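agent> Task received from the user: take the single chain below, predict its 3D structure, and emit structure tokens. No templates, no multimer pairing.
agent> Plan: (1) validate residues, (2) run structure prediction, (3) serialize to tokens, (4) report one or two observations.
agent> Step 1 OK, no nonstandard residues flagged.
tool_call: predict_structure(input=
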Amino acid sequence: MMHMHMTLYWGKDVTLLIDSWKTESWLSYLLALLACFIFASFYQYMEDRRLRFSSLASSKSNPSPPSYVPLLPNYRRSAKFATAVLFGINSAFGYILMLAIMSFNGGVFLAIVLGLAVGYLLFRSAGDEKVVAENVCACA
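)
tool_result: status=success, residues=140
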């Protein structure tokens, strides 16, 4: 019978997302934490890309299509489509991160929160951009 934790616990034995992803040694646990950290940081990178496409799609100026994409009839419409696709991908990433946190393992929780913070610092904290109202929840 499988034991499911319903409170925060600390330890190397964790089942992450699927039954076959179990950590039973310190090495496998640390690799799982590293994967969570990288995935959370990548989520912030993808969110930055989505916000940039969204900004491009809603810009007031009507830029001409770039010369390297001659088949796109409307550059702004393409940016809106890319924004929608990235929103779907980011939503899936956010829900996967949420489900990983629901393992209730303290190390997984810290790895994901630190990954989100480092990803935000690296990819989304540039001071030269306009402020965009955002939802801080990783699954939104």
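agent> Step 4: summary for the user.
The beta strands are 14-15, 22-23.
agent> Done.
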